[in-house]
Amino acid sequence: MLGFVSTSPVFWIILTSLLGFKIYLKLRTGMCKSTKRMDGKTVIVTGANTGIGKETARDLARRGAKVILACRNLKEANKARVDIVASTGNNMVEVRHLDLSSLGSVRRFANNIINTETRLDVLINNAGAAGFKNKMTADNLQLGMQVNHFGPFLLTCLLLGLLKKSAPSRIVMLSSWLHKTAKFDLYNLNFEKWFDTLQVYSCSKLANILTANELSRKLKETGVTANSVHPGVVLTDVWRHLPKIVKLPFILMARLYFKNAVEGAQTSIYLAVSEEVTGVSGKYFENCEESKLSKAAMDETLAKNLWEKSEVMVGLSPEEIHF
Q: Which residues are catalytic?
């Protein structure tokens, strides 16, 4: 058998192809080259206790920013804080509780920020998850759509006043290339007509882009920019809800070909700090450069309608509107 492996041209062709593909992916990985400091700036990163969010927070803390880790799991968030402070020497890293599956939690978090912070320079809506079962939250919203879209939508709306006060400021929405596979239906945002786990994720990621694009129009000439990002296919806890039958082979493949968390954080960091994107808004980035959107993601009417429907579904009141 070993002799066959060592002499078989098919084996070596396959091995060379796999290695070549791995090298190709590494070469395409964009890295944020900006050396800009963030001293005196305040940043919120949601879902910052692990993965892309944690590495994004670490980088911004290293640049001197005050970084607020907005997380559901406070135990893990505090562990992340200790690690980030130790590796950066920046003590201005704080943990605040935020559960995107509860609109009440989102409002409590936002009120806490408004009452305690004098400025907010960057809001990074990083938190998200895939593989949710068909479950409704206490707010009568589909769980995956609430965590990935409705929760971040409400949070962003509530913090717009502080972001405008702190302008120039930036909003970064993490999305995914899977937005291109979305079968989006404005009248099925809760997936009551039909349900598909992958489509919940794809539709929520399309909703992230549509939200960022609509924000860019609503915030025109305010000094607040809003952009969306595909971090790459990254091995993080976002996949923790996958069914067990596919989880093991998926993770084995992911370890070979997916980006690690540091690599996955680069485009978020780029949009948060880079001078190159100053004033740039309503764009979609991948590997630290602008990327193409699907036709649906560029649909201004769809974005406007989604925004209006989302306002109703999260119960946004007139006093919570800051644009």
A: 201
